[in-house]
C-alpha cells in the first residue's frame, strides 16, 4: 500500500496546503449551522495526484487541525494520517472517480435540507437564486446505507439526471454537495440549506410558484458566466 512518502515533493506540498484548507472549511459548516457535534464532512481532491483529503471520523469540530485530516487514494485507502477517515470516505472516493471535474465534496445534516430528504421530495425551484445556483430543483437521491460507496453511487446517478445542480438530498439521510474545490462545495451546502428553509416557509403560506425551465436556464447562464469577477 502506498504512503505519502512514495509521492514527490510537489504532491506532499499540495497535501499540506489542502489539509489546511479542508480543516479551515469545517469551521464554515459550524458557522452556517449546517452540522452538529461530529456529523458531516468536507473533502478536497488534489490536482497533482489521485488523492484527496477528508475529515477524520467522529472527531469534534473544535479538535480538528490540518494534521488530523486524513489523506486517501481514490479507492478510499488511507495514504497518510493517524486517524480513521470519515465513514463517508468510500462515497467521496466514488464521486471523485466517476465525476472527474469534481474537486470538492461536502456532506451535512442541515435541518431544512434534511427535512426535505426525509420526505423524499425535491426542493422545487421557486426562487431566482435557485435558478442561479442549482439550474432547477434540488433533487432527491435514493435511500442508501452508510459505510460503503453506495451513497456515492446514488449521488452520481442523481446528479447525472440534474447536471447543473451541485447538490443532491439523499433520501432519509441528508445533502451532499460538489464543487470545483471544497470551498465551492461548502458554498453549495450553505445555499442548499438557505433555499430549503425558504421553500419550506413558502409552503406554509401556500403553493410554490415554480419558475419555467426556460427562465431558469437564462438565470443559470447569467449567474455562471456573467455574475461576479472574472
TrEMBL record:
GO cellular component, one term: cytosol
EC number(s) given by UniProt: 5.1.3.4
Keyword Zinc on entry: yes
Gene3D superfamilies: Class II aldolase/adducin N-terminal domain (3.40.225.10)
Top-level taxon of the source organism: Bacteria
Cofactor: Zn(2+)
Catalytic reaction annotation: L-ribulose 5-phosphate = D-xylulose 5-phosphate
Every Class II aldolase/adducin N-terminal domain range: 20-200
Single biological process term from Gene Ontology: pentose catabolic process
PANTHER family: FUCULOSE PHOSPHATE ALDOLASE, L-RIBULOSE-5-PHOSPHATE 4-EPIMERASE SGBE
Name the UniProt record assigns to this protein: L-ribulose-5-phosphate 4-epimerase
Amino acid at each position: 500500500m502506498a504512503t505519502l512518502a512514495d509521492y514527490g515533493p510537489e504532491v506532499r506540498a499540495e497535501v499540506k496546503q489542502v489539509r489546511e484548507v479542508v480543516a479551515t472549511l469545517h469551521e464554515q459548516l459550524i458557522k452556517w449551522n449546517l452540522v452538529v457535534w461530529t456529523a458531516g464532512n468536507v473533502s478536497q481532491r488534489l490536482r497533482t495526484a489521485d488523492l484527496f483529503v477528508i475529515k477524520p471520523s467522529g472527531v469534534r469540530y473544535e479538535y480538528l487541525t490540518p494534521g488530523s485530516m486524513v489523506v486517501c487514494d481514490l479507492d478510499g485507502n488511507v495514504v497518510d494520517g493517524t486517524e480513521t477517515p470519515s465513514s463517508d470516505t468510500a462515497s467521496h472516493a466514488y464521486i471523485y472517480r466517476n465525476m472527474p471535474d469534481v474537486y470538492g465534496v461536502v456532506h451535512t445534516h442541515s435541518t431544512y435540507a434534511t427535512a426535505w430528504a426525509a420526505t423524499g421530495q425535491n426542493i422545487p425551484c421557486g426562487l431566482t437564486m435557485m435558478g442561479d445556483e442549482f439550474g432547477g430543483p434540488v433533487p432527491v437521491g435514493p435511500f442508501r446505507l452508510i459505510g460503503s460507496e453506495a451513497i456515492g453511487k446514488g449521488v452520481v446517478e442523481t446528479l447525472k439526471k440534474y447536471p447543473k445542480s451541485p447538490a443532491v438530498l439523499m433520501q432519509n439521510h441528508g445533502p451532499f454537495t460538489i464543487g470545483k474545490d471544497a470551498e465551492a462545495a461548502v458554498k453549495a451546502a450553505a445555499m442548499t440549506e438557505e433555499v430549503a428553509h425558504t421553500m419550506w416557509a413558502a409552503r406554509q403560506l401556500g403553493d410554490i410558484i415554480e419558475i419555467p425551465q426556460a427562465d431558469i436556464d437564462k438565470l443559470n447562464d447569467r449567474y455562471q458566466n456573467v455574475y461576479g469577477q472574472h
